[in-house]
Amino acid sequence: MRADRFRHFVAIDWSGAKGERHKGIAIAVADAEGGPPVLIEPERAWSRADVLAILRDLPDDTLVGMDLGISLPFADCGAFFPDLASSPPDARSLWALVDDVCLEDPHLGANSFIDHPNFAPYFRRHGGREGARFRCDEASHGRGRFRVTEQAQAAMGCKPYSNFNLVGAAQVGKSSLTGMRVLHRLQGAVPVWPIDPLPEQGSVIVEIYTTIAAIAAGRRAGRAKMRTGEELDIALAALGSAPIYRTGLLDEHSTDALVTTAWLRAVGSERARWSPPALTASIARTEGWTFGAR
Fold it and tell me: Among 54, 58, 3, which residue's Cα sits nearest to residue 32?
């Protein structure tokens, strides 16, 4: 990979919440030439449709990180939905299935999927309702099924959650499913690594986990969130970025996006980041990977 492979870096802190517009979505951009990362329209409540429009019209050679799971666990049980005859064979087929089942859900939501009788047993839902197939087997840990990349995250000191989990502030299930609808609707306009090979030129989307960027910026996994301008600038300096010089309190969605954008700029052209040891062709095709997990 060329050292100057990417010219722009974008990080999107995502939300799978109900409704059209979300304060939980934050978008930051950084230029390869330097300078601090910048929030795009920080006062705006973004919709998922807005983000889809941005992804369809990216500047050339942009590396985009989206804070969501681009797939579900597959390798542990040999299928996304074990014992279901219609279980998709790969991630792109999964995206198409989610989008099709949720076609009538407004705002690119995904409630129809998690409520569908074929798929509901695989999720942990509110009220302590753990589906009969939430775990791969009785020996599985209580956090549910993990992809191989989430096992790698845990080995790095992170605390990942299963994409089949729909409970609690750290739930990632709805974020992942709504994100899959967006990725499917791109219709291949932008490659999604590693489900698609990394192209020699042009833009590419990767899955990010903002805690990985925070750890690289000197934070501990348990204190990855930053809520002041001072904390943010210390983290940016650790990543070789110019400071923003913001004072006072900031929301964690904005700081997550800003720090992760600076991190993508710092490491996005490192060859080793694109070849984690546990990433096989089969895992790339089915589960995908989190950029930076190794």
Answer: 3
Instruction: Yes or no: say if 154 and 293 are a contact pair by the CB < 8 Å rule.
Output: no
Helices (H), the chain: 48-56, 91-101, 111-115, 148-155, 173-185, 210-216, 229-238, 252-267, 281-286
Backbone region of residue 227 per phi and psi (left: phi > 0; alpha: psi in -120 to 50; beta: other values): alpha
Residue with tokens 């990632």: 172
Q: Write out the two tokens for 286.
A: 């089915």
Rounded-to-integer distance, Cα 37 and Cα 54, Å: 17
Tell me: the pLDDT tens digits for 135-145? 877 546 677 89
CA distance 32 to 50: 24
CB 202 within 8 A of CB 60: yes
Interstrand relation of 21-22 and 46-47 (parallel, antiparallel or unpaired):
antiparallel
**Residue 43 — pLDDT band, cuts 50, 70, 90?**
very high
Q: What does pTM read for this prediction?
A: 0.95
Closest by CA position to 264, among listed 15, 16, 27: 27
What does the CA dihedral 282, 93, 51, 150 come to, rounded to 10 degrees? -40
Our count of domains for the chain comes to 1
Question: Among 3-7, 223-227, 257-261, where is mean pLDDT lowest?
Answer: 3-7
First to last CA, the chain: 19
- The boundaries of the domain holding residue 294 are 1-294
3-state secondary structure of 116: coil
Give 216-231 pLDDT, tens digit per residue.
999 998 899 999 999 9
Strand arrangement, sheet containing 38-39: 38-39, 26-31, 8-13, 62-67, 204-207
Model confidence at 1: pLDDT above 90: no
